[in-house]
Design a protein that fits this description.
Elements lengths: L1 E6 L7 H20 L3 H8 L3 H4 L16 H4 L7 H22 L1 H22 L11 H14 L4 E8 L2 E8 H22 L11 H21 L1 H10 L3
Antiparallel strand pairs: 1-2, 2-3
Helix pairs in contact: 1-5, 5-6, 5-7, 6-7, 6-9, 7-8, 7-9, 8-9
Length: 239
C-alpha cells in the first residue's frame, strides 16, 4: 500500500517541507558522488549509538561534536528506495502539519522528532556500532501528528492485490495506523531475534516507533490546546 496524495487542502505554501526535501535530495546526490568514500562518510556523519552512549571510541576525522551526527544523519539516505519512500510520505503529510503549526515551529518540531527518534533507538541498543541514517524517525513524527490532527482525512493509495494494482481512497487513520502498527510489530519482534540494527535488516524500527510516539503526543497536545479548530477538522475531514 503506497500513498499517492491526501485529500486535505492547505492554506499556506509549504516552504519548510520543500526546503527539507531539497536538502535531503542535495545530500543524497552528494552521497552518490562519493563512490568508494561513501562508507567513510556514513560512518562519520551517521548516528552511531555506541558513540553517543560513549561505549565505543569516536572515529578519526569527525569534524563535528558527536551529538551533531543526530542532525546530520537526518538528511542522509542509504539508497533510492530509502529516500524516495521517505520523501513521498513527507510530501503527502508534511505540508498539512506545517500549515497548522507555521513554518518556523514546524521546522523546530520536525528536528525535535528526529532527535527523539534517534535517542529511542540509542536507548534500546546503546552498544550498536551500526550507523543509523535517514529522515524516517522525524517523518514518523509527522505521521503520528497527522493521525491525531486529521483523523478523517482521505488518502488516495496504490494497492497491490496479488499481481494486480489498483488505486483506492482510504482514511488516513487506516493508512498511517497500519504503518505505525507495522513498526511496533517489527520492532518488538526484532528484540527476540536481534540485538543490533544490522541484525534486523538495517532498519532502525525503534527510531520509527520513538518518532511516531512523539508525533502522537504533539498531536494530542495540539487538539487539547486548540479544541475549536480540532472540532472543525473532525467535522469536515480537514479543517
Amino acid at each position: 500500500m503506497i500513498p499517492l496524495r491526501d485529500i486535505n487542502p492547505t492554506r499556506t505554501f509549504p516552504f519548510v517541507t520543500i526546503l527539507i526535501i531539497v536538502a535531503n535530495a542535495a545530500v543524497f546526490l552528494y552521497e552518490l558522488s562519493l563512490g568508494r568514500r561513501l562508507d567513510a562518510f556514513i560512518n562519520l556523519y551517521g548516528t552511531v549509538p555506541c558513540e553517543i552512549s560513549s561505549l565505543c571510541p569516536l572515529p578519526r576525522g569527525l569534524t563535528l561534536p558527536v551529538f551533531a551526527t543526530i542532525f546530520t544523519s537526518m538528511f542522509m539516505h542509504g539508497g533510492w528506495l530509502h529516500i524516495l519512500g521517505n520523501m513521498l510520505y513527507f510530501w503527502i503529510f508534511g505540508n498539512n502539519i506545517e500549515d497548522r503549526f507555521g513554518h518556523l515551529k514546524f521546522l523546530i518540531i520536525y528536528l525535535l522528532w528526529g532527535v527523539l527518534a534517534a535517542f529511542t533507538q540509542i536507548f534500546v541498543d546503546p552498544a550498536s556500532s551500526v550507523p543509523a541514517i535517514g529522515a524516517s524517525g522525524a517523518i514518523a513524527g509527522v505521521l503520528g501528528a497527522y493521525l491525531i490532527m486529521f483523523p478523517r482525512a482521505q488518502v488516495d493509495s496504490l494497492l497491490t492485490i496479488g499481481i494486480f494494482l489498483t488505486t483506492v481512497r482510504l482514511p488516513a487513520i487506516f493508512v498511517i495506523g497500519f504503518w505505525i502498527v507495522l513498526q511496533f510489530f517489527s520492532g518488538f519482534l526484532s528484540l527476540g531475534v536481534a540485538h543490533s540494527q544490522a541484525d534486523s535488516g538495517g532498519v532502525a524500527y525503534f527510531a520509527h516507533i520513538g518518532g511516531a510516539l512523539a508525533g502522537l503526543v504533539v498531536g494530542l497536545l495540539y487538539r487539547a490546546l486548540n479544541p475549536q479548530r480540532s472540532a472543525v477538522a473532525d467535522s469536515y475531514g480537514w479543517r
